[in-house]
Specification:
Elements lengths: L2 H21 L26 E7 L6 H13 L7 E7 L17 H9 L8 E4 L18 H9 L5 E10 L4 E10 L7 E9 L2 E7 L2 E8 L2 E5 L6 E2 L10 E8 L9 E9 L6 E8 L3
Parallel strand pairs: 1-2
Antiparallel strand pairs: 1-3, 4-5, 5-11, 6-9, 6-10, 6-12, 7-8, 12-13
Amino acid sequence: MTNNKISALLSVVLFSLLFACTENKPIIPCLSCGDNGITIIEPGTTVKKALLEEFTGVRCVNCPKAQAEVANLQSESVYGENLIAVSYHAGFFSEPYPESTNNFTTNTGTDILNFLDTPIGYPSGVVNRRQFEGERGLQIIQFATWGGFVAQALDDDALIAITIKNSFVPDSRLLSTVVEITPLALIAEDLNITVLITENNVESVQLTGDGIVDDYAQKHVFRTMLTGNFGNPISASLQISIPNQETFSFTLPEDWVAENCSVVAFVHQANGGTEVLQVEELNITQ
């Protein structure tokens, strides 16, 4: 065989080997990926948080004790920042005193109170809008027991992750909020998202066990809804590990202290149920 023929034969062999390597790469399966190739965040890797909706009023003598109980729970490591509270001033104990400089009652607070059932007394709390075993309804009036129900709610796996991103312009007092919702498991039911603003340490006239106090510091006061009162439908198709964004904007009134205001966002059942699946909170100046 001549040298030319040998060279030609070697070229054919090398080309065939190169072609075979290019077209027949071994397929290595990704054991942690979904069908779309995106890494799935397994349930349990995101912390489950609990929402405590407190119904209170300036004429409720025991309501300051309930707010102190919430503060105690939030100071404990077992709850800490995983317990997020919203206080609605609603019901017959919430009417402001003649000398009050703040009126915390809102039509939204009344709507939420009616939606979650009017309690037989105040203060009252609803944990994750869930009815717990042994309770007749969503409202729990014995505030000393709230911690036990919050612990039960925190024991569940987180099926959704929520991320809040705030942008606040002090001069215009314009707040822009982006809420990201990321499913961590397959969720077939319809869901709503509720987004609202609370304010901390708002001084007001308040009835206490020691009488009427002129400068009582109200905690996590509900201020306004950025969605509908009962949330907005999550219209996007929810896919595991793929975030969905919702954007909101609001101009803060001059008498609200921006540094004391927070955005609270929670995802909850929309049809045939009320339960909150996940909740998150972030100060608007962060």
